[in-house]
Amino acid sequence: MAKKNIYTTAQGTAQYPHLRVPESYEGQEIGYTIKLLMSQENTAKFKLFLEKELAKAAEAPEFKGKSFAGANMGLSTDKDGNEVFKFKTKATFQNRNGETFKKTLSIFDAFGKPVPEEINVGHGSVVKVAFSTKVYWKNRNMKGLTLYLEAVQVIELKEGFGGASADEFGFGAVEGGFSIANAEAENCNPFEENGGMIDATADADF
Q1: pLDDT tens by residue, 143-184
Q2: How far apart are alpha carbons 84 and 74 in whole angstroms?
Q3: Whole-model pTM?
Q4: CB 85 within 8 A of CB 72
Q5: What is the C-alpha end-to-end distance of the chain, expressed in Å?
Q6: Torsion angle of alpha carbons 105, 86, 124, 193, nearest 10°?
Q7: 91 near 34, Cβ under 8 Å?
Q8: Which end of the chain has less neighbouring CB within 10 Å, N or C?
Q9: Contact 195, 3 (CB under 8 A)
């Protein structure tokens, strides 16, 4: 089985993240989700990166003769007219025996330290997202690229209500950012080069 490539985004603003409690729609669980608003420059770079991923997939034998024109790339527009990208992953998984278990999403502070589960990353937090991609083509109207949420790094925390190490996801320390150690003292991964990540630029993977 081919190794999954995990990429990291530039930092952006989190919109309506569901990182501790899964998002649901009309009674159906979607999973852990987050929308990311980046700068116009990084949005343009990210769109180009996704278009290149689709172009590479179009050359695969399984997609021979199929067009990806107008493909879905997880892109939508917020209430202010800004383009945002949605990342998602299932909140449960099944083992080989068919038993279902809850999945815990890895969340790190700006220094690559795990954020305790009681801290909920809220709307407006500044974050980076570790993600993987999967291209699909079901029919002419259902085709595109899914952005799978792998982990989140919190640079600036706006707290909401309601296993792996940071560097495995590419989360390195960001000086001056949110630190869970400082937060605990007051009582209240990634993004550096490493062999397990795809690093296209100094700040992001696109």
Answers
A1: 889 999 999 999 999 987 644 556 656 787 888 888 877 776
A2: 8
A3: 0.78
A4: no
A5: 25
A6: 60
A7: no
A8: N
A9: no
Per residue in 49-80, pLDDT (tens digit) is 999 988 888 888 888 878 888 888 899 999 99
Q: Which amino acid is at 206?
A: F
- Compute the half-sphere exposure of residue 203: CA atoms within 13 Å on the CB side of its CA: 9
State how far the Cα of 140 lies from the Cα of 27, in Å rounded to an integer. Answer: 28
With contact defined as beta carbons under 8 Å apart, do 152 and 130 qualify? yes
Q: Are 41 and 83 in contact (CB under 8 A)?
A: no
Buried/exposed 64-91: b ≥16 CB within 10 Å, e otherwise: eeeebeebebbbeeeeeeeebbbbbbeb
